[in-house]
Write a structure and sequence with these properties.
alpha/beta, 11 strands, binds iron/sulfur cluster
């Protein structure tokens, strides 16, 4: 099972301050969840935790956890004394530094990649396409192509689609106007994998699909509630790990999980249209 663990109540919010609270997932709960067979994806800007090292140490014997970062505090990652198997770096383009309040994300990204040059860590960019960075997609594609040359250990990036969802602010989500021309631009620079291309194309052609995200994925929030998915239905709590084990919660909700394959929100949702794990090998 793939478990998205939101370690902090933190979401990026464009043009505004990030949504933050002091709520952090209890380290004892993380420790109890630890299971060799699961893939853990550490989300919610893990570097914001004061106990960052101790949280990562829980997974020290695991070879397949993924650390995601919005590049808020790369020095914590660089100074972590153990090797990290996989780092997914959320970098949303050269203009994003200004949009997010003149933050040095691009230079921090280069700093982090440079520090990982001799490490075995799998490195991948996650780029969220939005109405803010889409006008500069050609500049960003060229920049990413250069990064791939300078840092040959980096995998090709994964391009996601930005949406506003209930968890952010309840406003109507906004689809970026992604076009075939945008895909052509990315393809010409050689920065789009086949799987990523198919995912974005399915959004453009609006093909119907069955939600795959709930088949073997689950989301756990900082308040220890288990959620159906990371998209619109993230508001639905299936139960709390403060009261039950993950397995008990999953067993109790097996019918709901099955029904979600035909989730009525899937036309408005980007997340359930991933054919499989975006952290696959291609
Ligand atoms: S279609 Fe989207 S909102 Fe519905 S269950 Fe799947 S991921 Fe969640």
């Amino acid at each position: 099972m793939k478990i998205s663990l939101f370690l902090n109540d933190y979401f990026v919010n464009y043009n505004k301050k990030p949504l933050t609270s002091n709520q952090q997932l209890d380290r004892n709960i993380i420790q109890k969840l630890y299971n060799e067979d699961d893939l853990f994806i550490l989300r919610g800007e893990p570097t914001l935790r004061p106990d960052f090292n101790q949280v990562l140490d829980i997974f020290k014997d695991k070879k397949n956890y993924i650390l995601t970062t919005h590049l808020e505090d790369v020095s914590k990652i660089i100074n972590y004394p153990r090797s990290i198997p996989y780092i997914s770096m959320n970098w949303d383009g050269v203009m994003n530094d200004n949009i997010r309040g003149r933050k040095p994300f691009t230079s921090d990204l280069i700093y982090l990649l440079t520090s990982l040059k001799s490490a075995d860590t799998i490195q991948r960019l996650s780029y969220t396409m939005s109405q803010y960075n889409l006008p500069f997609i050609d500049v960003d594609a060229l920049f990413i192509k250069k990064l791939l040359t300078i840092f040959p250990k980096m995998k090709q990036p994964y391009f996601n689609i930005y949406q506003k969802g209930y968890y952010y602010n309840n406003e109507q989500f906004t689809w970026p106007a992604i076009s075939r021309e945008n895909l052509k631009t990315l393809n010409e620079q050689g920065v789009l994998t086949q799987k990523n291309f198919e995912y974005l194309l399915r959004w453009i052609t609006k093909e119907d699909y069955q939600c795959t995200s709930i088949q073997n994925e689950i989301t756990i929030m900082p308040d220890a509630t288990v959620r159906l998915c990371q998209s619109h239905r993230i508001v639905e709590s299936l139960g709390s790990l403060k009261e039950k084990t993950l397995q008990e919660i999953l067993n109790e909700n097996s019918e709901n999980l099955k029904k979600a394959e035909n989730c009525p929100l899937r036309e408005q949702c980007w997340f359930g249209n991933h054919k499989d794990n975006i952290y696959g090998t291609k």
